[in-house]
Amino acid sequence: MFRAFAGGVLLFIFAGVLQSALLSQWHLLHGTADAVLLAWAVWVLYEHRYAPPWAWALVAGAVVEVYSALPVGIPLLGYGLAGVAAHYILQRIEEPRIPLLFAFVGIGTILVQGVAFLGRWAFDGVSAPISLVLVQVILPSMLLNTLLALPFYAIVGEWADWTLPPRELIA
C-alpha cells in the first residue's frame, strides 16, 4: 500500500512540475491543459484497489494547491468533486479503460475549471459572463486535455506498471 501511495504522490508532484514549467505556456484561447488532472485520471484507472478515486483526487488537489494562484481550498474542492464523480462511475463501469479515461478527463475539466471560475468570482471579484468562460477557457482546456489524454495514458501506464504491485492472475 505504501508503494502505491508513494507512486501516486510522486506522479502528481511530477505532473505539477510539468504543469507549472511547460503546459502552462501552451494556450488555446485562454485555456491550458491540466497535467495533474490528466495524471489523476489515468492513475485512477490503474489504482483503485487501495484508495478510492476521490482520495487520489484530494491528493492531486493538494499538489495543485501548492503552486496555484486560486483561493485556498478551491483546487481541493474542484478535484474532490471530480473524484466523487469518478468514484460513482467506477462503481458501475470498470472496463473498458479508454472511454472511461475520456469521461474522467471531460467531467474533471468541467468541474475543476468551473469551480476555479466560481472561486475567482466569489473571492477575487472576477466577473465574466459564464458563456465567455465556457467558450474561452473551459472548452479549449477540455480540447487540450483530450488531445493529451492518450500520451498521458501511455506514460502513466508505464509508471503504474513500475510502481504498483502486480495484480493477481485470475484462473
| Tally of contiguous helical segments | 6
How far apart are the first and last residues' alpha carbons, in Å?
A: 24 Å
Query: What would CATH call the architecture?
Result: Orthogonal Bundle
Strand content: under 5%
Q: Count the beta strands.
A: 2
Low-confidence stretches: none
What is the structural class?
mainly alpha
Overall 3D geometry? globular
The ordered string of helix (H) and strand (E) elements is HEEHHHHH
> In total, how many domains does the architecture comprise?
1
CATH structural fold name: Arp2/3 complex 21 kDa subunit ARPC3
The helicity comes to over 70%
Task: Give an overview in words.
There is one protein chain. It contains 6 helices and 2 strands. With 171 residues, the protein is mainly alpha-helical. The protein has a single domain, classed as Arp2/3 complex 21 kDa subunit ARPC3 (Orthogonal Bundle), CATH 1.10.1760. Strands 1-2 form a two-stranded antiparallel sheet. Helix 2 packs across helix 6 (130-163) and helix 4 packs antiparallel against helix 5 (97-124). It is globular and about 50 Å long. It starts with a helix and ends in an 8-residue tail after the last helix. The model has no long low-confidence stretch (mean pLDDT 90).
